[in-house]
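User: Here's a chain of 189 residues. Predict its fold as tokens.
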Amino acid sequence: MTPTAAAAARRASARAVPARRPARRRAPRRAPARRTPRRAPAVQVIPAAAARTAGAVGDLADSGLMVRLTRGRLWIGVLAALLAGIVALNVLSLSLTSDSGRLTERSESVAQDNTVLRARLAKQLSSRRVESIAASLGLQVPDPREIVYLSPDGDDPAVAARRLESGELGAAPDLATAPTAPTDDLTAP
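Assistant: Prediction complete.
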């Protein structure tokens, strides 16, 4: 055989179709039952997301950059920087916790001070103390039948101004600075 005839014979044998097996009989297909479309539960979505993430991380680990990085000295510097960042975050967290504790203590102290001041104010404005100060100034509690309610007139401001100028009326006493009558239960804490 000549070389061209041999090549033609090879081509013809390559084109020859292999013998086919007889086809298997399949059972007739039934139409699928109609279902309402349902959303996939979250349980099925999470493994798929985890698989995609694992694939992406696996591809990152096989990349040329990561291979060069882990085989060289630069890897030590990257690890040192990551560890320093973790330590810095922990120190920051501890300082914020410490500041929070100090602020909580301070707010409790201010709340206690407010309670003490309210108690002192209540004692200073108690009716027994006011009555004792009024008695020391020469005032007395009137009989309920002696109380008369006045209605204002148009010339009341002018009369009050004249009385103030003449000294007939003085300024109202300040209860906070007025002298107190000595009583046992009114002492300040």
